Amino acid sequence: MEEVDFSHEALVRELGEASPESHKIAAAMCVYRVMPVLERRIGSGAASAVPAGTWSPAMVAGEIFPILEVLRAGLDAGTDEELAEEDEEIEEVFAMSSEMVLRAFAEDFEISRWSDWCSSLCLDVHQAFDALVEEADQEPRFYPAGQYPDLTELQACELEDQVRILRLLRHRSQTNDMDVVGIVEAGKARVAASLEQILEGGA
Taking the CA of residue 75 as centre, how many other CA atoms within 13 Å lie in the half-sphere pointing to its CB? Predict the structure, then answer.
């Protein structure tokens, strides 16, 4: 069986070969995976304004910008000061998650550039989560000399997800689209669990 490459180099190759439609879907799915962070700060109201089933590959391929407009409106509405103070430790994570949405409205918007940004920001969010989870646990992870990983644990999961999604999007089919949905739902659950662990640890 052929060994699958889930390195940064593999991700760069996949992004470089992706079609505009694949870029749009992959970027949208990055936004979807960080929705637990966005919902924490903009409220579930803005998120619930997005119709159920919206985040399927078939839907976001054509309808992502109206969805992003709803989220941007929630971001523009601002955050309750008390909640912002309570969530101070995740401020950087919120900023990176918000940036994925806001960059879609940049004057120099270009779909592949937006996809690249979302990919990088989503990886950075997961790296930040690992650091915050470790801090919340108050038990630094130990790695034997010479074995410190190039990627943090959550970051490695996110990198693998991104490569898998882009490969599935090469050949669109109902089966592949369902597999993409499975990956992004698991990724969103991972973000939600990490966020809960961080906030509970800081309580």
Answer: 20
